[in-house]
Write a structure and sequence with these properties.
about 120 residues; mainly alpha; 6 helices; about 70% helix; elongated
């Protein structure tokens, strides 16, 4: 119908493609339908594989982070206990009650070492 309409309006008519010309144009395509579909399928599979590897990596990192956070909280509790123990051991009552401190005698006179001119230089 388009060809008849073009003839009546003095417009150039569209050329009909013959079977040979259609075959020639399809052979000139870089990707045929089969290879394009295979390429798209392979690309989707590759992207899916990369996605699965990334998700697995992130979930593994999440478990490691939780484990390390648990370890940090345990170490903080241990540090608090050690600070309390250190404060108890350094307390004045503990030092006065120590046997080595009880057996000490007070010093009556204190003598200091005199410096010489050689040590002042």
């Amino acid at each position: 119908m388009g060809r008849y309409f073009a003839l009546s309006m003095n417009l150039p008519s569209q050329q009909r493609l013959t079977r040979e010309s259609r075959v020639k144009t399809s052979k000139h395509n870089v990707f045929s339908n089969n290879s394009t579909g295979f390429f798209v399928f392979t690309a989707c599979c590759l992207m899916l594989l990369v996605y699965l590897v990334q998700v697995n990596s992130y979930s593994t990192k999440g478990f490691e982070i939780k484990s390390l956070e648990r370890q940090i909280s345990q170490l903080k509790e241990e540090q608090k206990q050690l600070q309390i123990q250190s404060a108890e051991l350094q307390s004045f009552q503990r030092i006065q009650g120590d046997n080595a401190v009880v057996n000490m005698v007070p010093v009556s006179t204190i003598s200091y070492i005199q410096t010489t001119a050689l040590s002042e230089r």
